[in-house]
Amino acid sequence: MSRVVPKAPIESAPQPVGLGPSLSILVVNWNGATLLPVCLDSLYQHATGCEIIVVDNASTDDSLDILKKRSWVKLVRAPKNLGFAGGNNLGLEESCGNYVLLLNNDTKVTPGLLESLCEYLDSNPQVGAVQGKMVLPRYDNSLDVCGSFFTALGLPYHYGYFKPDGAKYQRSYPVFSGKGACLMFRRELIEKIGGFLFDEDFFCYYEESDFCHRVWLAGYEVHFVPSPPIQHLMGATGDRLLKQDLVQRYYLRNMMFSLLGNLSFASALRIMPVFFGILIFRMVIFLLTFRWAAFGAHWGAFTYNLRHWKRIKARRELIGRIRKKTDREIFAKILRTPRLDYFIKTFKGRIGDYVDEEL
Description:
- The chain has 359 residues and is an alpha/beta fold.
- It contains 13 helices and 14 strands.
- The protein is globular.
């Protein structure tokens, strides 16, 4: 399979080193001119032999000028802002690697990352997707999410989030979902999980969890890999793209759609009443405390899915065709419900204070 080899970069970029596997790297950009140079130059240094594709989501800043100076990058220009979901779908169509890495434009790749993820997939044929380790320089180099688990409440358990690195996070393990900021998968998966990477109606938020859920349903696994950690300036693009209430609305509506569409009838009957009950309880709290934006985000998630019940029905039919594992088999590996104080601290914005248990 052909691969694009980067040409010489701009002036003082470092000399590259070799990388063996056939790998395509997709970076979606929207007005990220201040972020791109660090991300791309780190890729030039550590991703030689890989196909590097940047999808520009109709940026209006200096992003295109920066990209044109790096002729070794394959530029794909979107006609409008397609979000993280649509942008990566567009980039995937233009890629050719056996493995595909989704990478945020606010990351800095470190030596050994790509090799460790590729080698893990090479050595574990049952694994379809892997997430690498990330640290958050804006938050004292605490950990980004080290994979997310499914819980009996339907809400995700973000393992390792805002914690100092330690032995708990220095081993590989199955997770329900990896984070799309650094997520590598086998190209062959796409046909087996419904013929698409992300649901474009999601735009952004929870699209990678929906993808990973389908990976599990199709008979593969998703793992966290303790790779050499990359830097992630978390939220550097999203903070500019959407207000916080819209972030919450997109996340909740997409998560609700995914759960309603992907869970078996028995699982949905058991989990969704609890999930809905929690959201309704939160809505009451927001009403009583006059937090109208937060209330509107939750209400919008409900009304969106009511309006799109036909899409949910079509998704359930799709899952029926691709399903290779029962929910019971999947939950045996990725269902892990944390203590109650995890959800309390998450609600209060203090998730970093929660102490993760050993897996």
